[in-house]
Design goal:
six-stranded mixed beta sheet; 2 domains; 308 residues; alpha/beta; Alpha-Beta Plaits; binds adenosine-5'-triphosphate; single chain; Rossmann fold; four-stranded antiparallel beta sheet
């Protein structure tokens, strides 16, 4: 069996008194797309930068394609692609020149002109980096990560700041790469992105893994087939709605204007909820019977309060 794409055991990284990564374990198999999720400051970028060999761990063991990213960095670097958070390049370098430069360092690069075309950057190839839009800079940064035909790519918030068209274009490209057997580890704050792309999801908080699994395993309800959720104006009297439902059901408002009926959903329950809303003159919007989505799971696990 091939070595895992990434294997991390007991990783610890401190910045002065701040423990950014606190005993993190993670295993990513080859050919998978793994989404690393977590609130701001959870330790995702630090973990990714250690895998890339840009930072040294304080303790723990990290192996990327079976290699130590620090001691065996020279052997590892040609085999991985890296898209750092926020990207970056010399401000005056033209998009085409930048990609050509990165391609010239690779043994068997992809055709830079083709890659620019795939990422919708052909018309911007003569544009200096500093004059590209934020979304174009992100796409150029992604092109630089991919042009060397890496076996494994690390993408730190690859679609942050992109418009929906560009985001979908990138999703298609990542899907195609994964179909070609490339291993992809990405961080994202977009739960929709993780649900659309990821084979595996790892949720970190305070430098530790707090949940992991496939998106469908993570969103599966324990012991319940489906749940009822709807949106309406904030502050409905959930005690009254609970009283209108059969015994054993409970309604709560986890976030202002979002309502969640706890208990097994059947047609009568849906009818009771919509009738009750109608009696209050309230339109129940986005009425949804089904599993939780990843965002709901994420908020339940990491809490709803704002992180710094
Ligand atoms: N160079 C640094 N010096 C000091 N503290 C740092 C440094 N880099 C990160 N930190 C701190 O370490 C913690 C983890 O940061 P990290 O960037 O890894 O989190 P993250 O999960 O990637 O966050 P985000 O989602 O906001 O990008 C944070 O508290 C951050 O402030």
């Amino acid at each position: 069996m091939s070595t895992p794409a990434v294997e991390i055991t007991g990783l610890v990284k401190k910045y002065g008194p701040k423990t950014a990564v606190d005993g993190l374990d993670l295993k990513m198999h080859r050919g998978r797309l793994l989404a690393l999720l977590g609130p701001n400051g959870a330790g995702k970028t630090t973990t990714v930068e250690i895998c890339e060999g840009f930072r040294r761990p304080d303790s723990g063991c990290v192996r990327v394609l079976g290699l130590d990213p620090v001691r065996e960095g020279r052997a590892l670097r040609p085999r991985i692609g890296v898209m750092p958070q926020g990207g970056g390049a010399y401000p005056g370098v033209r998009a085409g020149e930048m990609l050509g430069l990165v391609a010239s360092c690779a043994a068997e690069p992809l055709d830079p002109a083709w890659l620019l075309d795939v990422l919708g950057l052909s018309s911007a190839r003569r544009t200096p980096f500093k004059r590209l839009s934020g979304g174009q800079q992100q796409r150029l940064s992604l092109a630089c990560a991919l042009v060397g035909r890496p076996e494994l790519v690390f993408l730190d918030e690859p679609t942050a700041g992109m418009d929906p068209q560009a985001r979908r274009l990138v999703w298609d490209l990542l899907g195609a790469l994964r179909s070609d057997g490339v291993s992809i580890l990405l961080t994202t704050h977009l739960m929709e992105e993780a649900e659309a792309l990821a084979d595996d999801v790892v949720i970190v908080d305070d430098g530790r893994v707090i949940a992991e699994g496939t998106p469908s395993a993570l969103t599966a309800e324990e012991g319940e087939a489906a749940q009822l959720r709807f949106k309406a104006r904030p502050g409905l009297d959930t005690t009254l709605l609970t009283a209108a439902l059969p015994e054993g059901y409970h309604v709560h408002e986890p976030a202002p204007g979002s309502y969640h009926v706890l208990g097994l959903v059947d047609p009568q329950v849906v009818s009771t909820v919509t009738s009750w809303c109608a009696q209050q003159g309230v339109l129940a919007e986005e009425l949804h019977v089904g599993k939780r989505d990843l965002e709901e799971v994420f908020l339940e696990l990491t809490g709803r309060e704002l992180r710094s």
